[in-house]
From TrEMBL:
<feature type="transmembrane region" description="Helical">
    <location>
        <begin position="267"/>
        <end position="285"/>
    </location>
</feature>
<feature type="transmembrane region" description="Helical">
    <location>
        <begin position="93"/>
        <end position="113"/>
    </location>
</feature>
<dbReference type="InterPro" id="IPR000620">
    <property type="entry name" value="EamA_dom"/>
</dbReference>
<feature type="domain" description="EamA">
    <location>
        <begin position="3"/>
        <end position="137"/>
    </location>
</feature>
<feature type="transmembrane region" description="Helical">
    <location>
        <begin position="179"/>
        <end position="198"/>
    </location>
</feature>
<feature type="transmembrane region" description="Helical">
    <location>
        <begin position="146"/>
        <end position="167"/>
    </location>
</feature>
<keyword id="KW-0812">Transmembrane</keyword>
<dbReference type="Pfam" id="PF00892">
    <property type="entry name" value="EamA"/>
</dbReference>
<feature type="transmembrane region" description="Helical">
    <location>
        <begin position="5"/>
        <end position="22"/>
    </location>
</feature>
<keyword id="KW-0472">Membrane</keyword>
<dbReference type="GO" id="GO:0016020">
    <property type="term" value="C:membrane"/>
</dbReference>
<dbReference type="InterPro" id="IPR037185">
    <property type="entry name" value="EmrE-like"/>
</dbReference>
<feature type="transmembrane region" description="Helical">
    <location>
        <begin position="210"/>
        <end position="230"/>
    </location>
</feature>
<feature type="domain" description="EamA">
    <location>
        <begin position="150"/>
        <end position="283"/>
    </location>
</feature>
<feature type="transmembrane region" description="Helical">
    <location>
        <begin position="242"/>
        <end position="261"/>
    </location>
</feature>
<feature type="transmembrane region" description="Helical">
    <location>
        <begin position="34"/>
        <end position="54"/>
    </location>
</feature>
<keyword id="KW-1133">Transmembrane helix</keyword>
Amino acid sequence: MKNGYVLIILAALGFAALPIFIKYGYNVGLTTEVMLFLRFLIASILLSFIMLVSGRKGFKLNKSSLPKLVLHGLVFFGSSYCYVLAIKHMSATVTNILLYTYPLMVVVMATMIFKEKISLVKTITLLISFLGCLMVIDIINTSAHQISMLGVLYGIGSAVFYAVYNINGQYLSKTLEPVTISTYTSVVCLLATMVVYPPVNLFAGHSFQAMWIVGLGTAIFSTIIPLFCYQKGVSLLGASQASILSNIEPVIATVLAFLILGEKLSSLQLSGAFLIILGGLLLKLDKGKQPSTLSS
């Protein structure tokens, strides 16, 4: 049981470090396309190797699974693309907090698209989380905290895509192994990156040391390791406990951004972050019906 808690905390640490690596990349002159390409290239190679050496038959899929995995990968690419661009325009701290509004997006989708009834707890949570968002971006005084409204839009877009990714992921995991889902997701994201940013003279003018740090950091430390730690933690603790414990991720991200990047939040923004985390926790404690998959 204790090992399960340690694994979930390690997973949260890895995921929380992602915006730190990306912000560092921007600070040393790396471009959006370079960071996306390196992350998904390294992750695709390593995950494919893991599948091969483990002897699993994850590459063999039925016809109905492949389109769902492709859609799943495209949705994750959309989230990652918006996330990286949001960090380009805002602090890593604010971007990560906005991403954590994805449980709120799940509720909105379940209500508007799937016509599910919204409970009192979810109604209260929507209000709390929305107020928290306004406080984090400090809508009244954005210039004082260098909040870019374009960055806010990218941050919210990342949360919307991530919400869809989580909804579909719940259902894909019932028939496919996590390593299979992760491998195909990474490969699709790599191909999507190459379509959006054709890799012609991609690495010209960039520091190879910085590319190795960001590429290996985002692919291994912030993608593969936390993914496997979280899945193993879920198997030891159960999905509910693991999901609730993972609420420490934005807290860790805020601390890391302060210690490594020197980023600070005002008292109002910290209060808003607390409301968003509280809203996510309330949603996970609410025993509501899970929304249907968008790929079905």
